[in-house]
Design goal:
Layout (H helix, E strand, L loop, with lengths): L3 H25 L3 E3 L9 E5 L3 E5 L2 E5 L7 E5 L6 E9 L6 E10 L8 E9 L10 E4 L3 E4 L17 E8 L2 E6 L2 E7 L7 E6 L11 E10 L15 E2 L7 H5 L2 E3 L9 E3 L10 E4 L2 E4 L13 E3 L6 E9 L4 E8 L12 E6 L40 E7 L4 E6 L2 E7 L3 H8 L16 E4 L6 E10 L2
Parallel strand pairs: 13-16
Antiparallel strand pairs: 1-15, 2-5, 3-4, 4-15, 5-14, 6-11, 6-15, 7-8, 7-14, 8-9, 9-10, 11-12, 12-13, 17-29, 18-21, 19-20, 20-29, 21-28, 22-25, 22-29, 23-24, 23-28, 25-26, 26-27
Length: 462
Amino acid sequence: MINKTKIFLFAVAFFISGIANSSFAQSSSKGWQSLFNGKDLTGWKRLAGTADYKVENGVIVGTTVMNSGNTFLVTEKEYGDFILELDAKVESVVSNSGVQTRSHFDSSGNNGKGKVYGRQCEFDPSARKWSGGIYDEGRRDWLYPLELNPTAKNAFKVGEYNHVKIECIGNEMKTWINGIPTAFVVDTVDQKGFIGLQVHGITKEEQANKKVYFKNIKIKTSNLSPQAFPAGIYVVNNVPNNLSGYEKKDNWKLLFDGKTSNGWRSATQSAFPKKGWQIKNGIFTVLSADGKEAANGGDIVTKDMYKAFDLSFEFKLTPGANSGVKYFVTLDEKTKGSAIGLEYQVLDDERHPDAKLGRDGDRTLASLYDLIKADKSPRFTHPIGQWNKGRVVVYPNNHVEHYLNGIKVLEYERGSKAFKDLVAMSKYKVWPDFGEAKEGHILLQDHGNEVSFRSIKIKTLN
C-alpha cells in the first residue's frame, strides 16, 4: 500500500523547489530586456550600406555584399547607460564586424548614402587580433587598439560563438570577450545613442557572401553594477589631465595637474623657468624662440626621478615644430643646449629638417632619437595641430617600448649589446654609459618651437 503521507510530503517539497528555482530564474534575469525576439527584426532598422540581414533559426545573420559600404542594423531606441550582452560569431578571417554603442546616423554622410558614427566594440578576426578593442566608427578611428592589452588578443575565436559584454556607464566604456577584459576607454563624447550590429563593407571577391551571426542580445539599463577590471590594464582616458577611479587604484598619478607647474623645475635651476613656458586652459606649452634650442625658458624636468615606469602624455605640434620627451635624464652631463637623455622624439616630420638627418629615419616622430626609427603608419599619426598620444614603458628588466596613439612603434633592451652598438654609432657616443642610469628625471624639451603637452601621467613599475 502506498504511503499517502510520503507522497504528500514529496509533492510539497517538489512544489517548494519549483518556486525556488522559478524565483532564482526571475531574479537572475531581473532588469534585463531582450533586444531580439528570435523571430524577426522588430525594433531594428538597416542603415548605410546594402549588406543583407535576416533571421535564421533564431539568429540574426548578416551577409556581406560586394561594393557595399559598412552596413548597420541598429535599434530604433536610443540608450544612455547600459550593460549589453550578446553572442556573436564571425565565420571567416577575412571578415570584420562589431557592435556600435551610443551611436548616431548622419543621413548626408558618405555622399548621401548615410554614415553611422560612434564607438564600436570591434570584432577583428585578422592576424592582428584586435577583437574587443574600441573603434570610433566614422569619426576618430581607433581609440583602443589591442596593442594596449595584448594578453586579450586571443580571447576571440573565429568560427565560434563568442560571448560579448559591453559596459557604457557614465564616461566609461569597458569590453569583455568570453569573460576576458579587453578594453577600457574614458570618453565624454556621446552620452546616448543607438546600438548597432555591423557588417563591414567589402571590395574583394574573397570577402563576398561571408556571414556574421548575432544572438541572445540583451540589455540592462537600470540598477547597474559595474564589473571591476583586474589591476594592470591600460586605460585610454580622453578627459584631459584626469585620472579615473580605476587609474587611481592602479597607482597612476598625474605629473601635470592642468593648473600649476607643481612637480616641475628648470633643468638648469631649482625653480621653474620665469619665461618660455605657459600654463593655460589645462595645457602646458613651451613657447616659440624662433627654433633656438633652450634659448628661452629651457628644458623642464620632474623633481622626482624614476626607474621603471609607464609614462603617458599628449602632445600637439605647431607646423615645423621640434621637441621631445626625455627619460633617464640625470643632469650630470654638461651641455650648452638641451639636457642629455633617452628621447621620445616629438617632431613635424614633413617640415622640420631634423627628420631627414640621423640614420634611416631615427630622428622622426616617436623614434628613440638618433638610435631607433619608429615603425609607424600614417593612419595612426594625427595631423599637425591635433593632439597625439605618446607612451613610453620601461619595464624593471630594462625592456623599453614606445607607443604612438595606442600602437607600439618600437622596442629595445636598455643596456644590451645591441643598444650599446647603436649608441656607438650615434651622437651620444661621447657620453660614457649613455642611457643606462638606474634612475632619472622625465624631461620636456624646449627646442625653440611652440609645442603643447597635457594629460602627463605616470605609473611606477615594480
